[in-house]
């Protein structure tokens, strides 16, 4: 009997807990509403100022801004572009779907946004594209964008688009900052030359990740010739514990510099607790690891959003496959941690950034790396027959491997010398 | 001396209530759920009437919306039908999640590797059969252990879920992976996709047919009767000469097979691919559907439709009114809580210490 009473009380408390949850939700709601669209309840579209153009844009996110990483970076882009376009007299009304899975719920979300009258629908995750492609043919008047994916160039649809940024350029710069720090440690006699080992926490052995850590390694090597790198894959895009454990294991293997292609800040905090240094991705991580985090890099999505949304507003067509980097400011560095960075890092970064921007420096210069002891002279970029093995478009020419040249999604997947894959099961 | 042992509130089993009273309690608990939900909307700063209006128009307002709602209801109804015979037998199969996944894996195998070797309709039939058999086998394992050695079926079926979900993760990153490193299995060939009828994949026809079949099976067949007898008393069944172990295994195989068929429907009809979240919690939600329907197949249609309306409606609510997506879970939770709670008050009554007051209500 007492147990049943307890259960009853528990049930009652659950009801109150539910009500309390709702209360918390309230404080969170303003963050999720579309910013500065005049109408406070945001349900009154198309009635706003007659002279301003209004465009309704849908954004489908795999997470929400609480990840402080991938999706947060999209939300930052969304907010920045809303401001920029407001200044140009374009009123962007956003409809955002958070925490959508890479499954048929993504198809549902695309249908939902299309039915709500969005003129442009942006899908933010790689796995969304196949589901987006099921919806796009039914709504030819709506433009669909799949970020980081690659089907638009040959899916036969005019209203689908892909976009990515040359994030490897930012990785290269972060590598330069990391290399300078290690070279400084060598020059000061704190470590020997062969102790300059980078530990890299990667999500999966996926082209985007491989391209990123290779660029990072080449950046470090350009200023610290004795550097080597170990890569540990965690088998998840976002698993805070596994990422921290991987960073921990890498530190134990003698790595003194940690970087990552994964969504959480645990590699940064682990690096700090182990006395190693760190460079980040997607977000400034100096706040969580002030003694370890040197710099980070991220994509500034507002650049592409501005381009795409403006085209839609003006009724113009826009690129089906868009990819830019530092040339248009689509890849940016997060603030440099001057307290721990090597002397002269800021100047060097500015110099390298300029060289990348002008095209004077190629990140994947084939003279700077070897595969199996030999220089790379040929490698295909695109897969045309759907077997996931690249079979067309030669990526190596003019003395460099041209990443993201034939399509926006990264395709560099070579295992170069000097980078040791600790596991490749993923 | 006063009575030391009387607790503040006691519960007593009720005698059977007249039907009108039962429905009054159910009705009032439904109203209570609506009011509680309204409270949540008020706390969130939304007008409850327009919020409920959005839920209804978002889920049933347009033909596209109705299609989406039906799509959500299909696996719920199918899985509720699958677990009904087990629960009738008092065999607590909470492994529908894994049985759905197992069915989806088997169906996906044929979709991925036999698409160029079989003609379209045959491929679909083979996929359906493979899904059913795989789901059935996945359910048969715990049933066999239960029948032979009396293992705990609740834990066993639950743990079988995690095994098969792990297998799918392995397939996603390993042998069936599409683009290297992507962890994504390619989309099926169009031949392996369930055709659409009235804009929704024809899984809805399959589950509706199953509803009728299951009703007849449970109510009018010898096997259905055996299941009911075992549910009431295993010893009675044994005394009557039934082979309890065999019946348990047979029923579980049937249950798993229907779940596996649902897995096939979801993989082929809705997702057109396989991934580790293919069951998406349906295996657990379906338990609630089955219970609320009191294992009556036709009632399950209504309950799963209601849940689908809530889910789809709450989704639109998020799109139109910018309420957090988790509102869907909260509102659904409130409805389930009130509806399950009222069944409790129908079966039991509260007796307060002191007086002999009886508390009814929701």
UniProtKB/TrEMBL annotation, chain A:
Signal peptide (from-to): 1-19
A single GO cellular-component term on record: plasma membrane
Low complexity compositional bias, start-end: 28-49
Listed Pfam families: Bmp (PF02608)
UniProt keyword annotation of ATP-binding present: no
ABC transporter substrate-binding protein PnrA-like domain mapped to chain residues: 55-356
InterPro entries, per the entry: ABC-Purine-Binding, PnrA-like
Cell inner membrane recorded as keyword: no
CDD domains found in the cross-reference section: PBP1_BMP-like
Record region (Disordered): 26-49
Keywords of the record: Signal
Protein name from the UniProt record: BMP family ABC transporter substrate-binding protein
Organism of this sequence: Lawsonibacter hominis
Automatic annotation (TrEMBL), chain B:
Bilayer disposition of the protein: Multi-pass membrane protein
Pfam family, one: BPD_transp_2
Any one of the GO CC terms: plasma membrane
Subcellular location: Cell membrane
InterPro entries noted in UniProt: ABC_transp_permease
GO MF: transmembrane transporter activity
Keywords (A to Z) from UniProt: Cell membrane, Membrane, Transmembrane, Transmembrane helix
Membrane-spanning residues: 20-45, 65-87, 94-115, 121-141, 153-171, 198-217, 247-270, 282-310, 330-351
Coiled coil: none
Protein name, UniProt field: ABC transporter permease
Organism: Lawsonibacter hominis
């Amino acid at each position: 009997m007492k147990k049943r009473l307890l259960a009853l009380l528990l049930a009652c408390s659950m009801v109150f807990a539910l009500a309390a949850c709702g209360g918390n939700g309230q404080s969170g709601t303003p963050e999720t509403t579309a910013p500065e669209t005049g109408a406070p309840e945001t349900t009154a579209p198309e009635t706003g100022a007659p002279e301003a153009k209004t465009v309704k844009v849908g954004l489908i996110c795999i997470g929400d801004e609480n990840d402080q990483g991938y999706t947060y970076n999209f939300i930052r882009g969304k907010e920045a572009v809303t401001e920029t376009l407001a200044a140009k007299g374009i009123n962007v009304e956003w409809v955002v779907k958070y925490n959508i899975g890479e499954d048929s719920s993504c198809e549902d979300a695309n249908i939902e946004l299309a039915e709500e009258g969005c003129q442009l629908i942006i899908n933010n995750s790689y796995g969304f594209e196949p589901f987006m492609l099921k919806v796009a043919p039914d709504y030819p008047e709506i433009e669909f964008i799949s970020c980081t994916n690659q089907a638009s160039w040959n899916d036969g649809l005019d209203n689908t688009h892909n976009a990515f940024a040359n994030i490897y350029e930012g990785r290269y710069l972060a590598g330069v900052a990391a290399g300078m720090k290690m070279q400084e440690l060598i020059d000061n006699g704190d470590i020997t030359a062969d102790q300059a080992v980078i530990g890299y926490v990667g999500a999966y052995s996926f082209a985007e990740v491989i391209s990123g850590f290779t660029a990072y390694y080449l950046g470090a090597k350009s200023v610290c010739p004795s550097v080597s790198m170990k890569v540990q894959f965690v088998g998840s895009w976002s698993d805070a514990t596994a990422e921290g454990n991987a960073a921990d294991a890498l530190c134990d293997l003698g790595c003194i510099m940690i970087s990552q292609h994964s969504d959480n800040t645990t590699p940064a905090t682990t690096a700090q607790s182990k006395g190693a240094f760190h460079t980040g991705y997607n977000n400034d991580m100096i706040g969580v690891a002030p003694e370890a985090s040197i710099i980070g890099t991220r994509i500034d999505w507002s650049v592409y959003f501005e381009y795409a949304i403006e085209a839609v507003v003006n009724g113009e067509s826009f690129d089906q496959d868009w990819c830019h980097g530092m040339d248009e400011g689509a890849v940016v560095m997060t603030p440099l941690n001057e307290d721990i960075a090597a002397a002269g890092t800021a100047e060097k970064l500015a110099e390298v950034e300029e060289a990348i921007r002008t095209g004077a420096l190629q990140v994947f210069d084939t003279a700077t790396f070897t595969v199996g002891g030999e220089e790379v002279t040929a490698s295909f970029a695109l897969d045309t027959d759907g077997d996931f093995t690249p079979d067309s478009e030669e990526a190596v020419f003019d003395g460099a491997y041209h990443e993201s040249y034939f399509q926006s999604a990264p395709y560099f997947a070579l295992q170069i010398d000097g980078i040791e894959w600790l596991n490749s099961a993923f | 001396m006063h009575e030391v042992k009387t607790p503040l509130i006691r519960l007593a089993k009720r005698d059977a209530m007249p039907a009108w009273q039962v429905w009054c309690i159910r009705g009032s608990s439904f109203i209570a759920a609506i009011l509680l939900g309204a409270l949540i909307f008020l706390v969130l700063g939304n007008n409850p009437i327009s919020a409920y209006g959005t839920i209804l128009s978002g889920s049933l307002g347009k033909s596209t919306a109705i299609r989406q709602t039906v799509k959500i209801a299909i696996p719920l109804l199918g899985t509720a039908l699958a677990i009904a015979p087990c629960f009738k037998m008092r065999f607590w199969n909470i492994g529908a999640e894994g049985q759905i996944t197992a069915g989806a894996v088997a169906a996906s195998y044929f979709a991925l590797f036999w698409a160029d070797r079989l003609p379209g309709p045959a491929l679909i039939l083979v996929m359906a059969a493979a899904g059913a058999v795989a789901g059935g086998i996945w359910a048969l394992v715990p049933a066999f252990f239960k029948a032979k050695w009396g293992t705990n079926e609740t834990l066993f079926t639950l743990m079988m879920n995690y095994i098969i979900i792990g297998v799918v993760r392995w397939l996603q990153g390993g042998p069936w992976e599409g683009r290297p490193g992507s962890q994504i299995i390619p989309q099926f060939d169009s031949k392996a996709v369930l055709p659409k009828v009235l804009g929704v994949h024809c899984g809805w026809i399959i589950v509706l047919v199953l509803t009728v079949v299951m009703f007849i099976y449970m109510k009018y067949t010898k096997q259905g009767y055996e299941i009911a007898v075992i549910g009431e008393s295993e010893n009675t069944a044994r005394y009557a000469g039934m082979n309890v172990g065999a019946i348990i295994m047979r029923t579980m195989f049937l249950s798993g097979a229907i779940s596996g068929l649902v897995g096939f429907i979801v993989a082929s009809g809705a997702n057109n691919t396989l991934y580790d979240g293919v069951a998406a919690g349906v295996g657990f939600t379906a338990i609630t559907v089955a219970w609320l329907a009191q294992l009556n197949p036709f009632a399950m249609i209504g309950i799963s439709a209601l849940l689908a309306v809530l889910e789809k409606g709450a989704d639109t609510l998020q799109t139109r009114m910018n309420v957090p997506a988790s509102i869907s879970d909260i509102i659904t939770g409130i409805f389930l809580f009130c509806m399950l709670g009222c069944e409790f008050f129908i079966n039991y009554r509260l007796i307060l210490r002191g007086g002999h007051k009886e508390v009814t209500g929701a």
